[in-house]
Amino acid sequence: MIKRRYLVLTLLLLSFSAIKAQDTYHRNASADVQSYIFNLGLNDSTNQIQGETEFTVDFKEVQETFTLDLIGKSKNFGMEITAIFEGDNPANYTFKNDKINITPSSSDSTLSRTFKVAYHGIPERGLVIDTTKFGKRSFFGDNWPNLARHWLPSVDHPYDKASIEFRITAPEHYDVVATGEKLEESYLGDGNKLTIYKEPAPVAMKVVTIGVTQFASRLIDEVYGIPVTAWVYPENRLDGFSDYAVASEVLKYFIDTIGLYSYAKLANMQAKTQWGGLENAGTISYFENSVTGKNEVEGLIAHEIAHQWFGNSATENDWNHVWLSEGFATYLAILYQASVYGDEKRKEELAIDRNQIFEYYEKNPSPIIDPSITDPLKVLSVNTYQKAGWVLNMLRHKLGDGVFLEGIRAYYERFKNANAMTADFKKVMEEISGQDLNSFFEQWLYIKGHPKIKWEWKYRNGKISISIDQLQDHHIFQFPLEIGIVNKGKLEISTLQIDTKAKTFEIPSSVKPDTLILDPESWLLYEKKK
């Protein structure tokens, strides 16, 4: 996902004990949802939806009560429950404080049970019922981070992922796209149409969606058998098809670079969304004005498609570790662009991000992983996007390109269609590299800030003398610092190991250099001070 302000430019815990901290969401101890079938009825006369959700739950202990999220009715908005069934029998449940608490029947020892929730109401959020920029009525799922509960009874947290099926009944003049592969489109003879989509891969509710409006759609390409489509408004169809066409090249790059794609399709949808882009699994939403016909959203498209691997398939198990989603998408989008336009593009994007990091830190001196944050909406920041992307850039340089990519592939393969924490990623990278990465992860993810460096150099008696001072007070960072020595247009790089607040180095040189450049290849997140 990308915030819209990011598009303008393209778009404290001090120890590893912090890994154990979790967000405050109450998790079901013994119940694991395996699948959802969302039956939805939409209409033109009112914003009220009719819903019936069927879901299958696997239990460790069936006697224990389990909980789903659903926003209850308050004034004009929210959902009212008509009935809940366990199998064919009425279920034992309560519904209060926006929680459905269901106690399974103790008369059956089966550890897998199916339930149904029948409900109706007007969603205030999550399902955006509005008109498009061209005035056409529309319905768009916009769940991130925890807004599915406004219209879909579910475990609305990424720790519990499940397969998804949508069965949408709507007036027949609408086009319908949703999470998964289209299984059916049937005209019912009463002016309505039934459209069914199913995604067998487990997904989190934050990235489940539907799009219902008048669309123009086109098959852009098939990449390794995966259909890549564009769903745009008819009024700007040719511009939209052109802008979204690059998605097939991006998909191919990430499959070749990271590993197999998890989902049934890759649809790229122009939508009403609060975000610049929202990485819904296999059905990405892009903000309405992303369509211009000028092909200006390649970086945004790369970011959202990268999420299909990191954030959607390999999913953070805790909101405070969302950098495993946003930081990965940020950096992998940069790698894609560098593969197309050269390494200078990587440097350009990182330079933009670095300036944002410095500005953000002055007002928000906090670490990337900050368990003090309890609201999922507040975990998104320059820290979890741009700074986290810079951390991956530094890790790549520390390990080398080959080892870094091997580690990324191994991490994805191990946690594909599952959940992970930072400790899991660290463990995989240590296994692949054979290095102890504890201090690297601790100082860049769990400690706030970055090195602020004052430096000077002089040449005397066949030696280059370089003095490095770290000016920040809260922590002494340890890092390799590359020095570019320029003489007669030729660049040579020496690496200094920084591990103290102040240190002087001497480098033999038969001639006085024309100039010295700190970090000429953009591998270190640091702030140069005078």
- The top level CATH class name of the largest domain: Mainly Beta
Number of helix segments? Answer: 9
Q: How much helical structure, as a percent, in the residues? A: 10-25%
What general outline do the C-alpha atoms trace?
A: elongated
> Looking at this structure, what is the CATH superfamily of the largest domain?
tricorn interacting facor f3 domain
CATH architecture of the largest domain: Sandwich
Distance between the termini: 36 Å
Overall pLDDT score: 95
Describe the fold and architecture.
Helices cover 23% and strands 35% of the residues. The chain is of the alpha+beta class. It folds into four domains: 31-212, Immunoglobulin-like (Sandwich); 216-309, Zincin-like (2-Layer Sandwich), CATH 3.30.2010; 318-446, Neutral Protease, domain 2; 452-528, Immunoglobulin-like, CATH 2.60.40. The two termini are 36 Å apart. The model is unreliable at 5-20 (pLDDT under 50).
Fold topology:
Layout: E1 31-41, E2 49-59, E3 66-69, E4 78-86, E5 89-90, E6 92-96, E7 99-103, E8 112-122, E9 127-131, E10 137-141, E11 162-171, E12 175-178, E13 181-187, E14 192-203, E15 210-213, E16 216-223, E17 226-232, H1 237-244, H2 247-257, E18 266-271, E19 277-278, E20 283-287, H3 298-306, E21 314-316, H4 323-341, H5 343-363, H6 383-399, H7 401-415, E22 418-420, H8 422-433, H9 438-446, E23 452-460, E24 463-470, E25 479-487, E26 490-498, E27 502-508, E28 515-518, E29 527-528
